[in-house]
Amino acid sequence: MAVAPLIFSPDPDSLGPSHLKIAGLELWVHDRRSPEAQDYWEGNWLVVTVRCGAEGATIWTTGPMLRVPDLVRWAGALDRLSTRGVAEGVATLSSDEPNLTAVVRSTDRAGELQLVVDITPDPLTQEHRLRFAVERSALSDLVLQCRGIVKAYPVRDPDGARDA
User: Do residues 28 and 14 make contact, with C-beta atoms less than 8 angstroms apart?
Assistant: First the structure.
């Protein structure tokens, strides 16, 4: 793996364009944690770098913290949230690792949306939560970004999830 295990504040220009971006959240995918693994549980981990920034704060985290199926689920939930006739809903990106959680949710019956990001490079000693207003029209692009990552890193052994 070419990515250093702990990059606390990398140069964004050295990372190239992010693979996923909405509001203050950016994510770069470097590779699979185990490129040779073909099973569902080991073969779907992605090594990512995540930056979340708002006025006065920028938090970075890097490592194998997301799995391809996490992005598939988030894209589906975002798609439902962006196209549903009801203004209320929630779409959550979560993982078995505690470094990153991103939630897009309705804040009221009028359909205003908020992105809440919990991010940390060290879950044992730090917690960071950032909130952003999000336009519903931005969700379709976010869905496409998630699906682009999934296209580049397809789910390996999708039937393996049933073996748990």
Answer: no
